[in-house]
Amino acid sequence: MAQSTYESVVLAKRPTSLIVPGETFTVKEHKALTAADLKDGEVLVDTLYLSLDPAMRGWLNDTRSYVPPVQIGEKMRGAVIAKVLTSKSAKFAEGNYVTCSTGWTEQAIAKEKELTLLEVPAGGQVTDALGVLGMTGLTAYFGLIDVGKVKAGDFVVVSGAAGATGSVVCQIAKLKGAKVLGLAGSDDKVEWLKELGCDGALNYKDPNFRAQFKEATKDLIDVFFDNVGGEILEMALSRAKAHSRFIMCGAISQYNDAKPSGPKNISMVIAMRIRMEGFIVFDYVKEFPAARKELVQWLSDGKLKRKETIVKGGLRAAEQALVALYNGINTGKLLVEVKAENASGGSRL
């Protein structure tokens, strides 16, 4: 029996620091969408998985950025895996699985140009489309290869190394012949980084971390891929080699700070002639197909491993899961399962 309503999650109040469950977002109920609501070239989809990403906290701030902020009363944005319920597009048929950016909603209508048909390669699973083969993997790829200019023999340090992007960065760096030190927030994550092939891995919550980091970086850093910011960035600056490359991908340790502080030793950029560069993966849209082809090949060859942390509980679990993301709940990619389907494998489709 077809459902009569569906829910979406909208921004209710901008957080000044931490996201507050039950206050930052609110749930709205809508009359269920049907084929009668579609125009030519449109598709009705059912959301199966939401991608939760550190950048989401920045989208809630009413400040200038690479995308406009989510507005009060607007549906929370985000990438999803969805299933086509009905279609008025020649490109998509009922039952197709797709990726799109329809956000935090159980149902949505999307234009055909906004959808990508989901294809699972050998060795892959459906949820890879939001992880290692999606924006996560592409961010790691372009950040390390294009911005970081990684090469064989480089000493690469990765913060947030056990997260979705960081774990892919570590593996690509090894594939390119670099020596890799990964930084993570638990002993279990450190062990996983070693399984991925990292030459070294440290728990930044260890009481002796500063001394361990100094010893591990005694040969100084060629490339620093930063997902964390804050004190870790400051420590990396103090261990940077002359003409090193710092890839500024994220600053998850500071996203919830009302007044984030900068590194006290920023002058090291001058002293060591460091090239520090930020980037946004969408700058590389035209190059996505070639990069994805290489990522698919590495995955199919068993050269890329991944983990997923999948939160169940439907759409209403997304808000608390996003809060937990900034507390380090995830190893690898963090997803919310909006709707389960009967199938085998990690994708559960």
Overall description:
With 349 residues, the protein is an alpha/beta fold. It folds into two domains: 5-131 and 307-337, Medium-chain alcohol dehydrogenases, catalytic domain (Quinone Oxidoreductase, Chain A, domain 1, Alpha-Beta Complex), CATH 3.90.180; 135-282, NAD(P)-binding Rossmann-like Domain (Rossmann fold), CATH 3.40.50. The chain is built from nine helices and 15 strands. Strands 3, 4, 5, 6, 7, 14 and 15 form a seven-stranded mixed β-sheet that branches. Strands 10-9-8-11-12-13 form a six-stranded parallel β-sheet, sandwiched between helices. A two-stranded antiparallel ribbon has the order 1-2. Helix 2 crosses helix 3 (164-175). The longest helix is centred in the middle third of the chain and has 13 residues, at 135-147.
Topology:
Blueprint: E1 5-11, E2 25-31, E3 42-52, H1 56-59, E4 80-87, E5 97-100, E6 107-111, E7 116-117, H2 135-147, E8 155-158, H3 164-175, E9 179-184, H4 187-195, E10 200-203, H5 209-216, E11 221-226, H6 230-238, E12 240-248, H7 268-271, E13 275-278, H8 288-300, E14 308-311, H9 318-325, E15 333-337
Parallel strand pairs: 8-9, 8-11, 9-10, 11-12, 12-13, 14-15
Antiparallel strand pairs: 1-2, 3-4, 3-6, 3-15, 4-5, 5-7
What is the typical, i.e. mean, pLDDT? Answer: 95
Q: What's the structural domain tally?
A: 2
Largest sheet properties: 7 strands, mixed
**What is the terminal separation in angstroms?**
20 Å
Strand content: 15-25%
Q: Which of globular, elongated, flat, extended, rod-shaped describes the shape?
A: globular
Q: Runs with pLDDT <50, length 5+?
A: 342-349
Radius of gyration from the alpha-carbon trace, in angstroms: 21 Å
CATH topology value of the largest domain: Quinone Oxidoreductase, Chain A, domain 1
Q: Enumerate how many helices there are, as a single number.
A: 9
